[in-house]
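Justification of resources, computational component.

The compute hours requested in this renewal are based largely on the per-chain cost of generating structure records like the one below. Each record pairs the submitted sequence with a full structure-token output. That output is archived, and it is also reused by downstream analysis tasks.
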Amino acid sequence: MKKKVLSLVLGTAMAASMFAACGSSTSSTSSAASSSSAADSSVASASAGTTEDVASSSATASTASGDGKVYMLNFKPETDDAWQDLAKTYTEQTGVEVNVLTAADGQYATTLQSEMAKSEAPTIFNIGSSTDAQTWDDYTYDLKDTDLYNHDSDHSLDVVYNGKVAGIANCYEAYGIIVNKTILDTYCSLDNAKISSIDDIDSFDKLKEVADDIQSRLDEINKAGGYDLTGAFTSAGLDDSSSWRFSGHLANMPLYYEFVDDGLEDPTAGEATIKGTYLDNYKKVWDMYVSDSGADPKTLAGGTYNAEQEFGMEEAVFYQNGDWEYSALKDADGTNGYLTADDDLTMIPIYFGVDDKNEGLCVGTENHWAVNSKASDADIKASLDFLNWVITSDEGREALNSTMGLSCPFDTFTGDYAPSNEFSAVAQKLNDEGKKSVAWAFNSTPNVDDWRADVVSALTAYTDGTGDWDAVKTAFVDGWANQWKLQQESASE
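The structure output for this chain reads:
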């Protein structure tokens, strides 16, 4: 690779941290409105694109050409035009009426509550999590025995509540450890390298062995490849712009495995108390990030590090982050690209020493299609047929994959419709190989900002030597219980 001066826009990954591709949270925490207490209103027309449109434009839907009709409440404003086109195309092809209403950003919960109270309520809507599934339990049709479910290639993303599949993900994001394959290949070519290729990294122990060896041979690797490596890993910054990678994404690992042990039907649902069963594993990964990096552990909270830039400038081989980083890294200099997906970039799981053999990337979303169980049988069938068409037809797959730019977890998205994001493609490949994606258990974090802040504070003290690991455990475990209690008290007020 040719070294280039690089200017990266931070904020892209950090502001969007975990929802860059699939949209921001639209979690609906309000109770479902009773249809008996609402005025009888008609279904909004497919032309509505914002909440303002919702409030001012509500046209009566015409009689469907077939036995059933479809009314979809879409929550991603940026995809409205694409959904309107799909609705029109499907109606032209089948004669089945499809209406799409799109709520404005941040207004989905209130729009859904309002629309569900009408006599002609949405037949397809979005739920973000098990919390939403609980709220709308009486309205979610069990999708288990549907074509949509059968095409679903990653059931770890399903929202399962009360014994039924309440929602099926229509897109996903993935995170893990981003790897510069070219630098790693250079390391593999050295005498006495611990691996011969990236494929040999298949566990935490092996990753640690490789990272330790790279850290001890930086000058040798730089000389062999003309790099400027300062560490095996990028800096593990604990300032506000970076700490979410560890209090959120890395913290997800012990949460996920504990919730799996506890037998939660959906690990993203969370529990009121946690035991911290896998915090020793968390500590081992964190210690590796810190020790096998060029950053000073005493200054990680100072905001002086830029992990994204370090990775782009070939100063590190490994970088924990997500698929939203793909565009920035692939075209880091704003012209022809600094790194190239084919030659340089890939992603591996955050091996955690628990079930490394079967572990895939951390894959999640807050975007799940749900079908209204209170709709007529004809409308339910029409809605399921429409969604199946969307994920199997050329028109539907082109819209989701190219126009909307989504990575979709269905077995129909192969060939020309496979994810164009290299990291998303890795997630799909691992899933196809039978690896189990790690669900986003951090979605259940109570009073998330407060809990994470306390964990980061304790982690900072441990890392700079002014505190101990027991304080991290206390912030993690006791802090979770305290914040859960406060959250429930606030909800009941």
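The two ends are 59 Å apart (CA to CA). The mean pLDDT is 86.
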